[in-house]
Design a protein that fits this description.
The complex is a heterodimer of chains A (295) and B (472). Chain A is mainly α and 295 residues long. Helix content of chain A is 74%, strand content 0%. Chain A has helices at residues 2-34, 52-57, 61-92, 101-113, 116-126, 133-140, 154-182, 186-194, 199-210, 212-228, 230-236, 250-259, 264-294. Chain A is flat. In chain B, the strands form two sheets. In chain B, strands 1, 2, 3, 6, 7, 8, 9, 10 and 11 form a nine-stranded mixed sheet that branches. A two-stranded antiparallel ribbon of chain B has the order 4-5. In chain B, helix 2 (75-87) crosses helix 13 and helix 17 packs antiparallel against helix 18 (447-463). Chain B is an alpha/beta fold and 472 residues long. Chain B folds into two domains: 42-182 and 348-406, 3-Layer(aba) Sandwich (D-Maltodextrin-Binding Protein, domain 2); 184-346 and 421-463, D-Maltodextrin-Binding Protein, domain 2 (3-Layer(aba) Sandwich). Classes of the chains: A mainly alpha (295), B alpha/beta (472). Chains A and B meet through helix 1, helix 5, helix 11, helix 12 and helix 13 of A and helix 1, helix 3, helix 4 and helix 17 of B. Chain A: Pfam families: BPD_transp_1. Chain A: It is found in: Cell membrane. Chain A: Belongs to the binding-protein-dependent transport system permease family.
Chain lengths: 295, 472
C-alpha cells in the first residue's frame, strides 16, 4: 500500500518536474554557463572565459548608459503610472464617481489592447517634428516655441519614451485599482463623509491604505516593465537607443551585442545581470510589503 | 547599409522567440561544444572535373539553396536553379525563400547541418565576420578561377565589378560573393534643378554656394534620414576618402592609432558641421526615419538627400511623375584631393556563401557560377532596376533615370570605386561613428571632438583581444 502510494506520487510529480527542469531550469542554467563563455552564436564551440564578460560590463560605456536609463525609468515610470492610475481610479469610483465613469474606464483601457509595437509606431508619428500631431497641435494653438524634435533632443528623448510607457500602461492599473476600490465597503466612505472628510482626506485616509496591496503588486509589475523598455526604444528612438545613448536600455544593448556584434556570450552576461536586477527588485518589493504587514 | 540591412524595428516577441530558441537549443549546444565542432565531414565523393563541369559537380547530388526573399524577391534565384536542373537533371533542388535567414540558419550552422548555398542577407542575417571566425564558410577561390558560365574565355573573377571580390574577402580568402552592386552618392531631382537653373556642384565650395541659393528659393538644401545616422555618414566618409585617397580608407579600416585625425577626415567633418551650422539641413531631419525623410525629399521640401543606389526602387511608389531622380557623386573637398571627383563609394551586397559544412559543396559553387552568369544578372537588373555585381550586365538595356545615373557614375569612376570595410569588420566601430556623426550634424560636438571620440572607440577595439582583426 505504502509502496503503491509512492508510485502514484512519483507518477504524478515526475512528468511535471521533468518539464519544469527541461523548460525552465535548464535554460537558466545554460544561460548562466553561456555568460561565462565567448560563444559567437554560430560556432559549434564556446570557450570558457570565466567572469571576463561581467568585468567588461563595467567598462562598457553604452551598457552603463543603458543601466542609467533603466534606473531612471525604474524610478519615474512606476511612480508616474501609479500616481496617475490612482488619481483616475479614485475619480471614477468611491463615494462620488464622476458622471460617465464606466465609459472612461473602457477608454482608458484601449491602449492595453494594442500591441506595443503598434503603440510605438503610432507615437513615433505623433512625435514627428515636422508633421507630428504633437508639434502640429502646439503650433495650431500658437505655442510654436514649445515645438521640439522630441525624440532627437538628448534631454527630451527619454522622457518622451517614458511618457509613452506611462500612457500605454496606465489604463490597466486604472482597472486594477478600480476593482480594489470597488471592493472597499461603502460604509467606510459613508463614515468618512459623516466625519467631514473631503475628497482628498477620504482618498488619503480610507482609499489608499485599503488598496495598498494592489499598489505594491503594481510596483513590482511596473518595475519589471521599466527594466525592459526594449520594444518602444527599438521602434521609436533614433539610432535606435539614441541620440547618443540617451535612450539606450539594457535589452537593446543585449540585442545588439548578440545579433549585430555576434557576441552571444557577452550578451548573455547582460541578460544574467538583468535577471539579477529584476530578481532583486521583486525580492525587495515583497520584503517591503511583508515588513509593512508585520509592522 | 543596403536596403535590407537598415535598422528595422523588432517586435519583442521575435526577441523572446530567438532567446527561447537559444535557450532550448542550449542543451544541444553544450553537446556541440564537445562534439560537432570537432567533427570532420567526410570528404564527399565529387564528380570528375571536366571542361563542361569545372567544379566537379556530382550530377545526382541534391542541392539545398536558401535565399533571402526581400525587396528583390527570389525569382532570380529560382531561375538560376532551373538552369542548374537543366544542366544536371538528376539533381533534386530544395529551394527556401526566407525573410529571417539568420534565425533559420543559426541552429543549422551550430548543428553542422547547413544548406549548400545561403544568401546571408536582410535585417536578420548572420554576422559574416562571426561566421568567418567560426570557420563556417568555404573559400571560393576555386569558383573564382573557374570559367565564367556564359562568357567564353573569362573566369568568374574577370566578370565581376571592381570591389566585389574584396568585399567578400576576409584574411585573404574570398568567402562570399555579393550579387548586387550599390553605389552611394547625393540624390537630387533633375527636373527641379533644370527648372530652377541649378547645376550639381563638383566641389564643396560650390555646394555651399548652391545651398545658399536653394535656401533663398525657400527650399531646404539638404535632408537626411536622421533616425539612422549612417546615411549622412556616407557622403562624409566619401568626401574624406576623396581627400585622403585609399591610404586614408585603409588607415581607418586597419584601426590605425591616428586614423581619425587624418586631415581628410577632419576636413570632411568640418564641411558637414558647416553644412549644419549654416542651417542648410532641413529642420527636424534629425528625427525622421528613412521613409519620412525620403518622402519629404520627393515632395521637393529638400533638394539633396544622401543615399545608396537602391533609393529609386525604394521610392517607386511615392515618387511624383517627372521627378527624374539622379545620383550625383559627392563633391570634392578641395583641389588637393587624392581621388578624382568621379570616385564613388561602392560596395556589393546580397551576399551568397557556401557553408564549409555543406553536403554538396561543389554543387553550391556551381550554382553560384550559374547565378553570376551574365544572362542571369541581366534578367535581375531588368526585373529589379538594380545594378548587379556582374560587369556589363546592364549593357543595351533602357534604364530609368536613377539607375542610368548610377550606371554612368560607375562607368565614370572606372577603377576609382572604393569602400570602407570597417562596417562589416567591426560593427561596434560603425555604431560609434554613427553616434558621433549624428552629434556632429546636430552641432552638439565639434569636428575635433568627433574625430577624438571615434578614435577612442577605434583604439579600444584595437586593444580588444576578443575581436578578430582584419588587415587590408
Amino acid at each position: 500500500m505504502r509502496h503503491g502510494r509512492w508510485r502514484f506520487l512519483l507518477a504524478a510529480l515526475v512528468p511535471a518536474l521533468v518539464l519544469h527542469v527541461v523548460l525552465v531550469f535548464s535554460p537558466y542554467a545554460q544561460a548562466f554557463y553561456l555568460s561565462l563563455t565567448d560563444w559567437t552564436g554560430v560556432a559549434g564551440e564556446a570557450n570558457f572565459v570565466g567572469v571576463d564578460n561581467f568585468v567588461r560590463l563595467g567598462d562598457d560605456s553604452l551598457f552603463l548608459d543603458a543601466v542609467r536609463n533603466n534606473a531612471v525609468m525604474l524610478v519615474v515610470v512606476p511612480i508616474a503610472t501609479i500616481g496617475l492610475a490612482l488619481f483616475l481610479a479614485s475619480m471614477l469610483n468611491g463615494r462620488r464617481p464622476l458622471p460617465g465613469a464606466s465609459a472612461y474606464q473602457i477608454v482608458y483601457f484601449f491602449p492595453q489592447m494594442l500591441s506595443l509595437v503598434i503603440i510605438a509606431v503610432l507615437w513615433g508619428f505623433v512625435y514627428n517634428p515636422n508633421t507630428g500631431l504633437l508639434n502640429s497641435g502646439l503650433r495650431a494653438i500658437g505655442l510654436d516655441g514649445l515645438a521640439r524634435s522630441w525624440l532627437a533632443e538628448p534631454s527630451l528623448a527619454l522622457p518622451s519614451v517614458m511618457a509613452v510607457v506611462v500612457w500605454s500602461s496606465v489604463g490597466f492599473y486604472v482597472v486594477l485599482f478600480s476593482a480594489a476600490i470597488g471592493a472597499i465597503p461603502k460604509e467606510l466612505f459613508e463614515a468618512a463623509v459623516l466625519d467631514g472628510a473631503g475628497r482628498w482626506a477620504t482618498f488619503r485616509r480610507v482609499t489608499l491604505p485599503l488598496v495598498a496591496e494592489s499598489v505594491q503588486v503594481a510596483f513590482v509589475y511596473l518595475g519589471i516593465a521599466a527594466l525592459d523598455g526594449f520594444v518602444l526604444v527599438q521602434v521609436m528612438s533614433v539610432g535606435p537607443g539614441g541620440p547618443d545613448g540617451t535612450t539606450e536600455v539594457v535589452g537593446l544593448s543585449l540585442y545588439r551585442t548578440a545579433f549585430t556584434y555576434g557576441k552571444f556570450g557577452y550578451a548573455t552576461a547582460m541578460g544574467v545581470a538583468l535577471f539579477f536586477a529584476a530578481l532583486t527588485l521583486a525580492v525587495l518589493a515583497l520584503r517591503w510589503r511583508r515588513d509593512e504587514v508585520t509592522a | 547599409m543596403n536596403p535590407e540591412s537598415l535598422p528595422r524595428p523588432y517586435p519583442r516577441r521575435t526577441l523572446l522567440r530567438t532567446a527561447g530558441l537559444a535557450a532550448v537549443t542550449a542543451p544541444l549546444l553544450s553537446a556541440c561544444v564537445t562534439s560537432a565542432g570537432k567533427e570532420e565531414k567526410p570528404a564527399q565523393a565529387g564528380g570528375a572535373k571536366t571542361a563542361e563541369n569545372p567544379l566537379g559537380v556530382k550530377a545526382d547530388a541534391p542541392l539545398e539553396v536558401v535565399v533571402f526573399k526581400g525587396g528583390y524577391g527570389d525569382d532570380y534565384a529560382i531561375k538560376a536553379e532551373q538552369q542548374y536542373t537543366a544542366k544536371y537533371p538528376q539533381a533534386k533542388i530544395d529551394h527556401k525563400g526566407l525573410q529571417k535567414v539568420g534565425e533559420a540558419m543559426q541552429p543549422r550552422f551550430v548543428a553542422g547541418d547547413p544548406p549548400d548555398v545561403v544568401d546571408n542577407t536582410g535585417a536578420g542575417r548572420l554576422d559574416i565576420a562571426t561566421l568567418v571566425g567560426a570557420k563556417q564558410v568555404t573559400d571560393l577561390a576555386e569558383l573564382l578561377a573557374a570559367p565564367a558560365f556564359d562568357q567564353p574565355g573569362k573566369t568568374v573573377r574577370d566578370t565581376l565589378l571592381p570591389g566585389v571580390i574584396e568585399d567578400g574577402t576576409f584574411d585573404g580568402s574570398t568567402v562570399t560573393l555579393n550579387f548586387t552592386y550599390t553605389v552611394w552618392g547625393v540624390w537630387y531631382s533633375k527636373s527641379l534643378f533644370a527648372e530652377r537653373g541649378w547645376t550639381y556642384p563638383k566641389t564643396w565650395a560650390e555646394m555651399l554656394a548652391l545651398c545658399e541659393t536653394i535656401k533663398k528659393a525657400g527650399i531646404a538644401p539638404w535632408t537626411y534620414q536622421g533616425k539612422y545616422a549612417e546615411y549622412i555618414n556616407d557622403p562624409l566618409l566619401t568626401m574624406a576618402a576623396k581627400a585622403g585617397g585609399l591610404d586614408l580608407v585603409k588607415a581607418v579600416d586597419n584601426l590605425d592609432p591616428a586614423a581619425w585625425s587624418q586631415p581628410g577626415l577632419k576636413q570632411a567633418a568640418e564641411a558637414f558641421a558647416e553644412l549644419a551650422g549654416k542651417g542648410y539641413i532641413m529642420s527636424g531631419s534629425e528625427a525622421l526615419s528613412h521613409t519620412e525623410a525620403q518622402a519629404a525629399w520627393c515632395q521637393k521640401k529638400a533638394a539633396f538627400i544622401p543615399c545608396g543606389s537602391w533609393l529609386e526602387s525604394e521610392q517607386k511608389e511615392v515618387t511624383p511623375a517627372g521627378f527624374d531622380m539622379v545620383m550625383g557623386t559627392v563633391p570634392s573637398a578641395s583641389s588637393g584631393d587624392r581621388l578624382p571627383v568621379t570616385a564613388v563609394q561602392a560596395s556589393s551586397s546580397e551576399s551568397y556563401l557556401v557553408p564549409a559544412q555543406a553536403k554538396n559543396r561543389a554543387g553550391g559553387l556551381e550554382y553560384l557560377r550559374i547565378l553570376f552568369a551574365k544572362e542571369s544578372a541581366t534578367a535581375f537588373a531588368q526585373a529589379n532596376s538594380t545594378l548587379p555585381a556582374v560587369a556589363g550586365a546592364t549593357d543595351g538595356l533602357t534604364l530609368t533615370s536613377g539607375l542610368g545615373s548610377v550606371r554612368d557614375a560607375v562607368t565614370a569612376a572606372g577603377p576609382d570605386a572604393f569602400n570602407y570595410r570597417f562596417r562589416t569588420w567591426y560593427a561596434p566601430l560603425a555604431k560609434a561613428v554613427d553616434d558621433a556623426t549624428a552629434e556632429l550634424v546636430n552641432r552638439r560636438i565639434s569636428a575635433a571632438d568627433w574625430s577624438a571620440r571615434i578614435q577612442k572607440a577605434s583604439d579600444s577595439l584595437a586593444k580588444d583581444s576578443t575581436v578578430k582583426k582584419y588587415k587590408r
